[in-house]
Amino acid sequence: MSLLIGASTIGLILALLALGVYLSFRIFNFPDITVDGSLTFGASVTAILLVRHVPPVLATLAGFGAGFLAGALTGILHTKFKIHGLLSGILVMTALYSVNLHVMGKSNLPLLNEKTLATAAEHLAMRLRGGEQDVGILGWSVGLRDLSMLLGAVGLVGAVGGILYAFFCTDLGTAMRATGDNPQMIRALGVSVDFILILGLALSNGLVALAGSLLAQYQGFADVQMGIGMVVWGLASVIIGEALVGTQRFGFLITGAVMGSVLFRLLVAIALRWGLNPNDLKLITAVFVFVALVAPNLVRRLRSPVPKPNPA
Amino acid sequence: MLDLDQILKTFNPGTPNEVRALRGVSLRLERGSFLIIIGTNGSGKSTLLNAVAGTFLVDTGRITLAGQDITRWSEHQRARLVGRVFQNPFSGTAPTMSIAENLAMAALRGRPRGFGWALNARLKGEIRDRIRTLNMGLEDRVDNAIGSLSGGQRQALTLLMATWLKPELLLLDEHTAALDPKSADQVIRLTHEIIQKDRLTTLMVTHSMQQAVNLGDRIVMMHRGQVLHDLQGAERARVRPEDLLARFDQVRRREQLDPAVAELLQRSYV
Ligand SMILES: Nc1ncnc2c1ncn2[C@@H]1O[C@H](COP(=O)(O)OP(=O)(O)OP(=O)(O)O)[C@@H](O)[C@H]1O
Ligand SMILES: [Mg+2]
Fold first, then answer.
1. Distance from CA of B195 to the nearest CA of A (A)
2. What's the gap in Å between the CA of A208 and the closest CA on chain B?
């Protein structure tokens, strides 16, 4: 049970990553690799601030801001310097690796004795429950710590998802969705496509960095390697989410990305429990995304027979 | 109103693919005038409209619109003054977004966009009212994705979007060419109504001599990146589709003659 709760919590935290990837890959159709660096960037900035005893809320917001800047930089490289989108992301991601090492001063920064959002959630739950350590749910005994984290994650992700949804309903957010849909049209309506792309990538990487920041606080350390392969992870969640909700409405897709992230994390936890070698995880994730990207086309091609040449 | 002064545009200069698409075009348009542009394929009609809309910056020359020198303005800056309908019905609307959302974006053409709700009850009501004037029965479907509509319906909506805020200049580039005859008629009638009602200054490209003669108050014929004929006033009033076709024939004959003459000259001099 605590395995499932832990997996769900991480799934929820990484749902913010999935939302960021949804924004860049699906709204803009922009393959943004910055994610691998900005996730760690959010974690490292938050971690070093927590070590310096900055209040957790501020440290977390700073993590978001760090990712926001990283994403904006990728957007600027792409739009103002005309560098290929993929390469822009790779450049920023690569640079961030060194930046993260500098920020943390070493490759791994533990947060065991620091006040974090995680300890804050735990304290709050403790106070509400009057000091009990375990809670009974459906006959299971669940650690209060685990439960408070899960509920905290639910609240946070719910709030961020809600804000993102609301943003997409504003004039600016609507223009952002249209930019991905038809840049020619939105430009003819007076919107700078460059500006919207920079803003969108900033927002996307801000969300990703927020995921990194929360993940570091949840697991109690930031590590310079923690972002590796996270793009694919987020993409897998988005794809699962799309399959789950089966529509193009963005409200559903936001919910879907969150559900996809949690489901994916649960599947991974179960697979690991059944003896999957953790070293194979990234390989399997990559293969999964490959299949998910290719399968729809393949199915379509198999269904519609190849047109025969006209008998003259 | 619109003043084009010696516009030059060469694509891919200095390469084997060099195209001198505009070779010194000068045009002056009064406020409220409706100019039809005709010309052979590749004569530079679309390039001229793109130059005005700011799709690219011209090599030399000056563009003045509504008293402002917009020569160096980017496309999205010019959108404040210019409304536009493209030839391709897919170009003017965001397909996965609803009719209402598309029109709500058009209602802010060229204005700053912030954190206000894109759609509210009042705006949605206004959108329904304006769509009702199209007589296409779309007013009950404003929440449907635009991608599910026919080309004619999309072009009609794009026209509505381009003129929701009265533009200083309306650009129409063969906006009915991709439609079936019936939808094309419908969209042309709508175009006529809107331009009349709002007295819009308009540049319209068409391949239909019938449209050229029936609409507008001035006809310009382009050829090889230049203005070949400019029919105004009494001359314009007299012109019939056959006359325009005759001018096309003239161009074609001269075109055929030129290479032959060149060859003749070459043979006798080399
Ligand atoms: N972006 C571009 N890059 C290179 N060449 C271009 C570009 N746009 C137009 N051209 C070339 O400029 C010339 C004029 O093209 P334009 O599209 O303006 O013609 P048009 O008069 O609109 O023709 P049509 O009647 O076929 O629409 C053509 O030779 C075309 O190939
Ligand atoms: Mg053209």
1. 19
2. 22
Can you tell me the mean pLDDT for B87-112? 95
- Are the beta carbons of A10 and A43 closer than 8 angstroms? no
Which token pair is B257?
């003659």
Q: Do A186 and B105 touch (CB under 8 A)?
A: yes
For chain A, first and last CA: distance in Å? 68
Residue A298's pLDDT band, with cuts at 50, 70 and 90, is confident
Q: Does the predicted interface ipTM exceed a cut of 0.95? A: no
The superfamily (CATH) of domain B2-46+53-237 is P-loop containing nucleotide triphosphate hydrolases (3.40.50.300)
Q: Which ligand sits closest to the CA of B172? A: 2
Chain B residues in contact with A80 (beta carbon < 8 A): none
Q: How far is B161 from chain A (nearest CA, A)?
A: 9
Q: DSSP labels for A65-78?
A: HHHHHHHHHHHHHH
pTM comes to 0.91
Report the C-alpha gap between A49 and A39 in whole angstroms.
16
Residue B113 has pLDDT above 80, yes or no: yes
Give the Cβ contact number of residue A143 at 10 Å.
Answer: 16
CA B269 from chain center: how many Å? 46
Please give the radius of gyration of chain A, using alpha carbons only, rounded to the nearest integer.
21
Residues 44-73 of B with CB under 8 A from A: 53
Strand partners, B172: B85, B204
Q: Which tens digits make up the pLDDT trace of A35-81?
A: 999 999 999 999 999 999 999 999 999 999 999 999 999 999 999 99
**Residue nearest to ligand 1 atom 24, measured at CA:** B41
Ligand 1, pocket-test mutation among B12, B46, B172, B228, most atoms within 8 A of CB? B46
Residue B50 CB–ligand 1 contact under 6 Å? no
Strands B68-69 and B19-29: unpaired
Residue of B65, B49, B1 lying closest to B203 (CA atoms): B49
Of B97, B109, B118, the CB nearest to A189: B109
